[in-house]
Amino acid sequence: MEILDRTFYERETITVAKELLGKLLVRRNNKDNMIGKIVEVEAYSGSDDPASHAYHGRTDRNYLMFGHGGYAYVYFIYGNHYCFNVTAKVGNNPGAVLIRALEPIDGIELMQANRHVKDLKNLTNGPGKLTKVMNITIKHSGLDLTKGEDLFLCEPKDKQRFEIVSTKRIGVKSGIDKLWRFYIKGNTFISRR
DNA sequence: GAGAAGATCTCCT
DNA sequence: GGAGATCTTCTCA
After folding, report:
1. Cα dihedral sign for A151, A155, A160, A166?
2. Which positions of strand C lie within 7 Å of protein CB atoms?
3. pTM
């Protein structure tokens, strides 16, 4: 498998977000692999995006968004859930892409066991769900995704053509004029509301 | 050191 | 369709 390298991530956040659709997220857990195809993402920028963690400047929590692209940025939200982001940026403006939904590809039995859910369509269709299924926690924050270790992204073997739909982002109260949520048209594994 | 809000999910009606 | 669960982070004193 071809792991995405640094040059993929060090581009405009919006461009990276769109191109992440259809890529594979690989989670290596001891000897077991879990693989999911990315079907839904959201882009978060910096000083021009009031919904972004980076909007109010650099802090102890969001400093990863100000660093290089291609790193995992994981944070805990609502007392219950982790959200998994990939840093993606060009120049000095911070940026990250939130992975919102996956299509289960491999290691499905392990995924089901991690959440005690059998319905595939209800397994990874939300940011909090997919982190639980993939066993992604705050420990993975700051991980280099280009090294091919516990967690990385790669190019699928057979590239499929699909249409990209862009809509308003979900769950944010500011920046709703930006259509920075992207998903694969017709895919049944996206989250909705 | 206290208070409030948050890039969500699940259960209940 | 709506509210509760639950804790980290940020802001202000």
Report:
1. positive
2. 5-11
3. 0.94
In the 104-143 segment of chain A, residues within 7 Å (Cβ) of strand B are 115, 117, 122, 126-129
Rounded Cα gap, residues A172 and A154, in angstroms: 29
Give Rg (Cα) of chain A: 15
Nucleotide nearest to A63 (CA to C1'): C9
Measuring alpha carbon to C1', the residue closest to nucleotide B9 is A128
Mean pLDDT of A130-143: 95
Q: Is the pLDDT of residue A74 over 90?
A: yes
Choose among A69, A56, A62, A59: nearest CA to A14. Answer: A69
Q: Which residue is nearest to nucleotide C7 (CA to C1')?
A: A79
pLDDT for position A193:
60
